[in-house]
Q: What sequence folds into this?
């Protein structure tokens, strides 16, 4: 999940008209998720997906986005982040059903095996000898949780479509005529959550172990949700204060992950798929506005 997974060319900026003579509205806040063969984008009210099938044909689908943050819920700190993430996740099965040709990032036997192995290893590490340092055990267990994502990126087009996601959204936001001109790294990429989430997860699990003699899955799960909530709030604060020292430090690990591992320069055909998804999300948002 990338730009505005909390947090995404076109030949023109494609801004919606305000209709009151005051000029165009600001660009929509878009998020998205790279697919193995395409791109899923979600906006304030809708979602759109584009994917290239095994026959080379380009398919597009779209729909209305579910809402889990009505009214005041969208403004409650620590609660709004997980709820918005749930909204983004709820779009995934809708897109997959509407466009069967789309292939999700984890639709790969290797990734499924890696996920099962990582979960089993994490349980084994946490159940290690009591005299072993808890910090080391939690660090290893938390690091194992990201292994399936790195397996998904290896040997597939996923990294290229991750860059497509960043480029078409950045081109839209910046008014660039060609998405190829945009950087393949994006400041709102979900990769920016990875380092703080790992650190907060380790801290949360250590706190649970200090407070409870034998912490169960419910307590560990609650600590995990709290870690996600805090990480998302930090993500949002960084976006509101882009020039702060904290923001630069917060985003640096994610930027390097994107630059070195999570993205690679896409082809023209892959950018065409991203452009189709962006065009469709803007069409849907203009209808539902």
A:
């Amino acid at each position: 999940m990338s730009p505005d997974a909390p947090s995404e060319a076109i030949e023109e900026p494609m801004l919606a008209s305000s209709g009151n003579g005051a000029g165009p509205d600001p660009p929509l806040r878009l998020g998205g998720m790279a697919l193995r063969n395409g791109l899923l984008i979600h906006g304030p009210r809708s979602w759109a997906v584009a994917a290239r099938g095994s026959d080379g044909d380009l398919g597009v689908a779209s729909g209305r986005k579910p809402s889990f943050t009505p009214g005041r819920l969208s403004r409650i700190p620590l609660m709004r982040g997980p709820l918005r993430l749930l909204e983004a996740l709820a779009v995934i099965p809708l897109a997959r059903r509407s466009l069967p040709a789309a292939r999700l990032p984890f639709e790969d036997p290797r990734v499924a095996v890696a996920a099962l192995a990582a979960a089993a290893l994490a349980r084994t590490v946490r159940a290690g000898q009591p005299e072993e340092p808890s910090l080391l055990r939690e660090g290893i267990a938390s690091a194992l949780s990201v292994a399936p994502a790195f397996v998904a990126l290896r040997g597939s087009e996923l990294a290229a479509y991750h860059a497509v996601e960043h480029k078409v959204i950045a081109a839209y936001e910046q008014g660039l005529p060609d998405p190829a001109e945009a950087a393949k790294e994006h400041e709102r990429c979900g990769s920016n959550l990875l380092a703080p989430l790992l650190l907060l997860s380790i801290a949360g699990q250590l706190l649970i172990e200090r407070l409870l003699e034998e912490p169960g899955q419910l307590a560990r799960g609650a600590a995990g949700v709290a870690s996600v909530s805090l990480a998302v709030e930090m993500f949002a604060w960084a976006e509101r204060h882009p020039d702060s020292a904290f923001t630069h430090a917060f985003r640096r690990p994610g930027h390097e992950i994107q630059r070195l591992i999570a993205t690679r320069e896409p082809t023209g055909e892959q950018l065409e798929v991203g452009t189709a998804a962006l065009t469709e999300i803007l069409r849907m948002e203009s209808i539902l506005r």
